[in-house]
């Protein structure tokens, strides 16, 4: 009987918001409203627009208003794990933003604002766990980007303008329906190697490990010099390459 009531979230008061301000280890003011059960962007926090960081992650937000542009000092914005289907064009006005996390939402390619390309100081962009089937080539304008996460979407290609960003160090495109493994490797090969290959300096090894590695290297050099190249490929089951690979245990969307 009657209409079903919509889900009501927690109401955030200005006092509660002020009490949620934290000072980060580097002295920045972070407004932390994560995991508060918020369904609607709390207008009262516009009075705290001088904070450096804003965390609204792990809530139930469906929309971010254009008034977000009032946070002109904002360097760090975390909106991951909400129910966002779009981002406002006004997000491009946050010229000081260096970190933007909107992973684990319901964003589609057509609802990514063109004005994202105005975030000239952006260094980290996380768009993983969304519904993107394409990446705008305009993101290639973000020359300061160092980390881009696009995992768990519906991408079949990554624009060269993104893969060739001059400062890009990490590009995560895992679990996307690329046409074939070779094409995926083509997009991330050079970047992926830097994440999985770790070179160890001699000074970082204990004496026994260092000697073991040197001995194995000497054995390999001798075999390489004495056996013709036309011989069948050799197998060195005991060959030790210290710390040559490492598991990728970083958090996916933090």
From TrEMBL:
Residues 234-247 have a biased composition (Polar residues). PROSITE patterns: LRR. Pfam families: LRR_14. The keyword Repeat applies. Gene3D superfamilies: Ribonuclease Inhibitor. Signal peptide: none annotated. Residues 234-254 are annotated as: Disordered. It is found in: Cytoplasm. GO terms for cellular component: cytoplasm. Keywords: Cytoplasm, Leucine-rich repeat, Repeat. PANTHER family: LEUCINE-RICH REPEAT-CONTAINING PROTEIN 18-LIKE, PTHR48051. May be involved in the regulation of spermatogenesis and sperm maturation. This is Leucine-rich repeat-containing protein 18. It comes from Casuarius casuarius (Southern cassowary). The gene is Lrrc18.
């Amino acid at each position: 009987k009657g209409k079903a009531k919509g889900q009501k979230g927690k109401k955030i008061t200005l006092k509660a918001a002020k009490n949620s301000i934290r000072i980060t280890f580097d002295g920045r003011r972070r407004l932390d409203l994560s995991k508060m059960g918020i369904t609607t962007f709390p207008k009262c926090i516009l009075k705290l627009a001088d904070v450096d960081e804003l965390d609204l992650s792990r809530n139930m937000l469906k929309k971010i208003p254009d008034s977000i542009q009032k946070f002109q000092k904002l360097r760090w914005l975390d909106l991951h794990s909400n129910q966002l289907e779009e981002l406002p064009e006004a997000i491009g006005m946050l010229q000081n933003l260096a970190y933007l996390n909107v992973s684990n939402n319901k964003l589609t390619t057509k609802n990514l604002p063109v004005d994202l390309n105005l975030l000239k100081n952006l260094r980290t962009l996380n768009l993983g766990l969304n519904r993107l089937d394409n990446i705008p080539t305009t993101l290639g304008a973000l020359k300061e980007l160092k980390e881009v996460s696009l995992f768990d979407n519906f991408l079949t290609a990554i624009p060269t303008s993104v893969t060739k960003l001059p400062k890009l160090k990490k590009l995560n495109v895992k679990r996307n329906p690329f046409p074939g493994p070779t094409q995926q490797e083509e997009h991330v090969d050079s970047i992926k190697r830097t994440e999985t290959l770790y070179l160890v300096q001699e000074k970082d090894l204990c004496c026994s490990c260092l000697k073991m590695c040197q001995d194995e290297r000497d054995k390999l050099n001798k075999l390489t010099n004495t056996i013709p190249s036309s011989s069948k490929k050799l197998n060195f089951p005991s060959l030790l390459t210290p710390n040559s690979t490492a598991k990728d245990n970083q958090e996916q969307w933090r």
